[in-house]
Design a protein that fits this description.
Blueprint: H1 2-22, H2 27-51, E1 68-70, E2 77-83, H3 88-93, H4 98-107, H5 114-123, E3 128-134, H6 142-154, H7 159-168, H8 176-185, H9 190-199, H10 203-215, E4 223-226, E5 229-232, H11 237-248
Length: 249
């Protein structure tokens, strides 16, 4: 909304500037008016930015049947994770990338990777489902995601393993052949995998999920939504646990 306001003001000013060129005697007085309008518009932008995009409301994120879902699809708590396989802090949230984990622990020695403990304590018991969506954080993980969607189609119960193995090879997430090897080693049918990738059936997911993320205020990866409640960055397990327990109570 705030960007729309600024854009409309900008378009209006440009149109008035063109009129001023046709009527130069009015330009001096109009210049002061334009300046006031710009200042008001910038102040409005700053105000809306401080308020935040969601005004404290829960984000409404659509989960489709062909989204990657880990856990019971009917679980009472849904965690939507906007992630990029090439993002170091996304890997840290899953318990990988020792450098990113060390950086997080230096700021909070009690920090614990959230997703492994969420999987162990809530996903396996059917209380939580994790929905993984793509967002271009680091920007080089699209091939890993393409293979991931095709692998999930064949073996949804093994996707958690695929995710971990990809993060272990995080520097190579744009190497589609290596990503295919990871999927095949976990039991994917090679021919079906190649057919899926050749058809590009999940390529539209990249744009669709990126747009979803933008619409709910995702600014970087990882960003999580626990039943619509936003948790930005690789927060510690204890922060997720507090929100999950509140949602379950």
């Amino acid at each position: 909304m705030n960007r729309t306001i600024i854009r409309e003001v900008y378009i209006w000013i440009i149109s008035k500037e063109k009129m001023d060129q046709q009527h130069p005697t009015e330009k001096k007085s109009n210049f002061l008016i334009y300046g006031v309008i710009i200042i008001v518009a910038i102040a409005a932008l700053a105000f809306f930015s401080m308020m935040g995009d969601d005004n404290g409301e829960r984000a409404d994120i659509i989960v489709n049947d062909n989204d990657i879902i880990i856990g019971d699809k009917n679980a009472p708590v849904t965690i939507v994770e906007f992630t990029d396989f090439s993002c170091p802090f996304c890997a840290a949230a899953s318990g990988y990338n020792t450098q990113a984990i060390s950086a997080l622990k230096s700021g909070d020695p009690s920090w614990e990777a959230p997703l492994p403990k969420i999987n162990e304590n809530y996903v396996k018991s059917g209380k939580v489902r994790v929905v993984m969506k793509y967002y271009p954080g680091h920007g080089t993980g699209m091939e890993a995601h393409r293979v991931g969607w095709c692998f999930y189609e064949q073996a949804p119960d093994k996707f958690f393993q695929y995710k971990g193995n990809v993060f272990f090879e995080q520097e190579n997430t744009n190497n589609i052949e290596l990503m295919k090897e990871i999927a095949i080693d976990l039991g994917a049918n090679k021919d079906l995998l190649n057919q899926c990738l050749a058809s590009k059936k999940y390529d539209a997911k990249i744009n669709e999920q990126t747009l979803q993320g933008m619409n709910v205020g995702v600014k970087g990866t990882p960003t999580f939504f626990v039943n619509g409640i936003k948790i930005e960055g690789a927060a510690s397990y204890k922060e997720f646990q507090k929100v999950i327990e509140s949602e379950l109570s």
